[in-house]
Write a structure and sequence with these properties.
Length: 784
């Protein structure tokens, strides 16, 4: 039997969840309570984040951390620390504001009108951001180069960019300011906790900070400044020669010799991305490992920024190479059900252009690929998840998002977020507890259990990938024609072909990486799927929406997730032996309908939309109870369920329901009470005979469902159709059925008080309560 699954069935699991726990300076009682709230949500760790705290690394911060660490220790929890007073990482808690100029950010820029340096004009976002008051006097012209009739004046300045009081990621000494201001300060006070209670540090969206904030189009060849430092000058002299400065105009000039342009642009981007790898990523990572803790985080990856400067660090893999997990984040509606072809944002930033293929087919694969090939990662791939989707996001969407990333190999998560600020905190909701206001807190806890079990399985072996797609960063830097990785990833994903995305460094420096023994390597000039690629499994009928993750190790495991409509068919898997399903939601083994073939095993499946199936192969028969999956059986009959009554209560008053009334299904609660958020309780009764088998199917509800029969819970479910085997809870004669449905907080929190958020927040669109039908099926007992 698979050892990991055996451990899970016994209730023993490793923790893979570390939600953000925001700090604003709340009192000790609230902080201790929230540590327990996170613990009771089935998360064994959390990441403390100043959001912002009024006294980061000051007396109040230390007092708050004392209480938090003490409570975490009592509960056996681990604590991570976000490494700055506010995001993005690099402010160094204000240390740069008065630091020597040579430790501050620097840009290389060019003008053709002789007026150097160019003027920095803040964009709409930057006008509302805190600004540095520093003005630097070391602007320097390093070259004037004539190209045709144009004179390019190239120089260095510290007076451009929106975060001039942030560290220079290309200066080892500048990055040390962050270590001294944050990391060393925490070690000085809490060295006794390092490596036991304190698990590590988290860098959030570190950036070069040139050009404009969140501008995803900061490519070479555009009229922007680009990051620089003395160390870059040394690297450029090594790669381009003594007169490197005279060639830098090619970072902007698009009509020069193509080979010269490619050579200079590649040399520059190699210089800055390799420097940030050493000066930032490895310097901090090595400090953490030397002090007994880990280093994790993520950059901004959105819409191609993972391979660009500006709000990111130029190269996904190099920027995170010094960390102990790979990292990504999914926020604000980036990944959405059936959002693969959505070209315009509809959630956090309505109307903004979006690269749907990147979010759906490349984002998760970046994390799982880096985790698979880099030795430091040890297979650990992290995703910051759920944040800034708005109060309309509930557990129904959250489970889809979790499965979306897990089936792509992500096995650690940072749910965003637990906020102890007074409800409703308008900062990037939803908030999973919200001082007890969130009706779905217990349902969220059930989701965390499910995610943690799946993550344990993903970590029990090696994710199989037979194909490598070469990371496209160098092609974009040089201005070459290429197929973006996300386009090829989409083609492979839809054919159930396993793959990684790997950097060119993997082939140039093979001794640094884990040999994955890929059978096929797809370059960036390839736009169609090469012939002969073998899918992991064969589906009949075929569908481009079934995702599969193959884990090999203790046993062969296939994790399927359906991102399309309900699927009924057969899956041929090239494995032999005994075959079972592991139900990660209910934590039990279930039987499967299988048949042997010449190439392996065919499994007959029915996988509803947004549901998963985990198939486990074993060389020996499993000596534990195996249950059949909950499904309809031929010969069943419907048991009439009527009349229904409905009552409601808000989360803080649960379970004191009120306003009971008779209703018919589907319920129109949202129309009747458009501002209501909380619990809706539906009650009815029915008769049954001894030995009858019972299956309840709720086809639609908004959103979290818990069913009680005769006062006993049959469990929580969060994805329709909600199926409950009620056989063991039934009694001969009359049975009392209760269905509780927990809504999101969308309606209660609309409209936001802040005018800017109000303009960006759509009117509530989700339903409330039992928005579909509840059907009870019965199989009479067999008379003997």
């Amino acid at each position: 039997m698979n050892k990991t699954i055996s451990r899970l069935l016994g209730g023993n699991e490793d923790n893979h969840l570390l939600p953000f726990f925001w700090q604003h300076g709340e009192d000790e009682a609230i902080l201790r309570k929230y540590v327990n709230v996170i613990h009771d949500a089935n998360c064994g760790a959390f990441c403390v984040e100043s959001r912002p705290h009024p006294d980061f690394c000051g007396p109040k911060w230390w007092a708050d951390m004392d209480a938090i660490l003490d409570e975490a220790k009592k509960l056996g929890m681990k604590v991570w620390i976000l490494d700055d007073s506010h995001f993005p990482t690099g402010f160094a808690n204000g240390a740069v504001e008065n630091a020597p100029a040579q430790l501050c950010r620097q840009s290389v820029c060019a003008v053709t009108n002789g007026k150097f340096p160019p003027k920095f004009t803040p964009n709409v976002i930057e006008r509302f951001m805190p600004k540095s008051k520093r003005v630097f006097s070391d602007d320097t012209i390093i070259a004037v180069t004539k190209f045709g009739k144009t004179y390019w004046t190239v120089g260095l300045t510290r007076n451009l960019g929106y975060h001039r009081n942030y560290i220079n990621m290309l200066s080892r000494k500048s990055v040390r300011l962050l270590i001294d201001a944050v990391y060393e300060k925490h070690y000085e006070r809490y060295s006794q906790y390092f490596g036991n209670v304190i698990e590590g540090f988290f860098s959030d969206e570190p950036e070069f900070g040139n050009a404009h904030m969140y501008d995803s189009s900061v490519k070479l060849g555009t009229p922007n400044d680009f990051p620089f430092s003395d160390e870059i000058a040394v690297r450029l002299e090594e790669s381009l020669g003594k007169y490197w400065a005279e060639e830098l105009y090619l970072l902007w000039e698009n009509n020069a010799d193509k080979e010269d342009t490619r050579r200079v642009r590649l040399a520059y981007m190699d210089a800055i991305t390799k420097t940030v790898r050493e000066d930032f990523s490895f310097q901090i990572g090595d400090w953490c490992r030397a002090h007994g803790v880990k280093y994790i985080g993520h950059i901004i990856e959105d819409n191609g920024q993972h391979a660009r400067t500006g709000s990111s660090l130029g190269h996904y893999f190099r920027s995170l190479e010094g960390q102990d997990m790979s990292g990504i984040d999914d926020i604000g509606g980036q990944v959405l059900p059936q959002g693969e072809n959505m070209t315009v944002e509809k959630s956090a930033f309505p109307g903004k252009e979006r690269n749907a293929s990147f979010f759906h087919f490349m984002l998760g694969r970046l994390a799982s690929s880096a985790a698979a090939i880099e030795p430091l990662k040890q297979g650990r791939a992290m995703c910051e998840i759920f944040g800034n989707y708005g109060w309309a996001e509930g557990v129904f969407l959250e489970k889809y998002l979790a499965d979306h990333f897990m089936v792509r190999g992500v096995n650690y998560f940072v749910p965003h977020a637990f906020s102890p600020k007074a409800f409703p905190d308008p900062d990037c909701p939803p908030h999973f507890y919200a001082h007890g206001h969130n009706p779905q807190y217990r349902h969220f806890a059930a989701l965390m259990k499910y995610m943690n079990r799946v993550c344990n399985i993903l970590s029990s072996g090696t994710r199989v990938a037979t194909t490598a797609i070469v990371y496209h960063a160098e092609e974009e830097w040089q201005g070459n024609d290429f197929t973006p990785n996300e386009k090829m990833a989409k083609l492979l994903e839809g054919r159930q072909i396993s793959f990684d995305i790997v950097p060119k460094d993997y082939f140039d420096e093979p001794n640094k990486y884990i040999d994955r023994k890929y059978k096929t390597v797809i370059g960036c000039q390839t736009s169609t799927v090469p012939e002969g690629l073998i899918p992991e499994v064969t589906l009949s009928p075929k569908t481009p929406f079934m995702r599969v993750c193959h884990i090999t190790g203790e046993s062969e495991i296939y994790y399927f997730f359906n991102e399309g409509a309900r699927y009924s068919g057969e899956i041929e898997i090239p494995q032999t032996g005994f075959c079972y399903a592991y139900n990660a939601w209910d934590n039990r083994m279930e039987s499967l309908e299988t048949s042997k073939t010449d190439v392996g095993t065919t499994v007959k499946v029915f996988i509803e939309a947004r549901k998963s199936l985990i198939v486990v192969f074993s060389n020996t028969e499993i000596a534990i109870p195996i249950r059949p999956a909950i499904q309809l059986i031929t010969g069943s009959e419907r048991v009439p369920l009527a009349p229904w009554t409905r009552s409601i209560c808000e989360s803080l008053k649960y379970p004191k329901f009120k306003d009971e009334k008779t209703i018919t299904l589907p319920d129109k609660l949202a129309d009747e009470k458009p501002k209501f958020s909380g619990f809706a309780l539906y009650k009815t009764s029915f008769e049954t005979k001894q030995g009858d088998k019972l299956l309840l199917v709720v086809d639609k509800a908004c959103e979290g469902v818990e069913v009680f029969l005769n006062g006993k819970s049959a469990g929580i479910q969060i994805v329709p159709a909600y199926r409950y085997d009620l056989t063991d809870l039934a009694q001969t004669g009359k049975n009392e059925l209760r269905i509780e449905v927990a809504t999101t907080l969308e309606r209660k929190c609309y409209p936001p008080k802040d005018i800017t958020r109000r303009l960006r927040t759509p009117k509530p669109y989700s339903g409330s309560g039992l928005t579909g039908n509840a059907i009870l099926y019965r199989w009479p007992a067999v008379e003997t």
